[in-house]
Known about the structure:
By secondary structure, the protein is an alpha/beta fold. The protein has helices at about 70-80, 100-110, 125-135, 140-155, 170-180, 200-215, 230-235, 255-260, 265-270, and strands spanning about 35-40, 45-55, 60-65, 85-90, 95, 110-115, 190-195, 220-225, 235-240, 245-250. The chain is built from nine helices and ten strands.
Amino acid sequence: xxxxxxxxxxxxxxxxxxxxxxxxxxxxxxxxxxxxxxxxxxxxxxxxxxxxxxxxxxxxxxxxxxxxxxxxxxxxxxxxxxxxxxxxxxxxxxxxxxxxxxxxxxxxxxxxxxxxxxxxxxxxxxxxxxxxxxxxxxxxxxxxxxxxxxxxxxxxxxxxxxxxxxxxxxxxxxxxxxxxxxxxxxxxxxxxxxxxxxxxxxxxxxxxxxxxxxxxxxxxxxxxxxxxxxxxxxxxxxxxxxxxxxxxxxxxxxxxxxxxxxxxxxxxxxxxxxxxxxx
Length: 279
């Protein structure tokens, strides 16, 4: 199995400048996240087994594989929503599932999650959705919460969405609003489940640009996607889950895996070769 540890402007809709990229030193930084001997599933059913990988600050790790291989299930285990059948999930130096509930709650404040459907609260405005993590976990005044929420929405290209209901947004706008909420507490780690699925090419490209900028400013990202454009645009490394072997069969830079990875991985990554670069 290939296991090469390597790492690599704002969307045009963003009117708010973000901080300049921070210098990266992957050799000095401790992993933000580490899976060790991880097996996942339901009851006695093993979906994936013996998973071992890590994520450094300022790195994008994409989880990919055929439908039904357990990509979203793995993400739920990484964020603490589903207990592993075996193995450990480390957040920094803390074994998440061995920690007590109070420690787990503290750890959850250090990462943001964008769920596949956005998962915005329909009874709240978009701005209220973004403010909620700040109101629950940050010592901000109501005025500061609103200002920061408007800033986050501007960053993802939604400067006029603060007072709108989630139902008033298109599918792509809801995904970007969910990213804004995931960014609410400026976490060093983001988990994104199919962030560009169903987006038009322009919206998808703008989202990829935002993710690249977050990576370049030191944020670590774990992203589940089957979109080849996004994989080659933003991923530093690709973790491939094999649906038949029920384990990881490749881990490395996407281009390297396309050139010399296992046959199943090269076949997966070569889909749509003719269309890449046309976006």
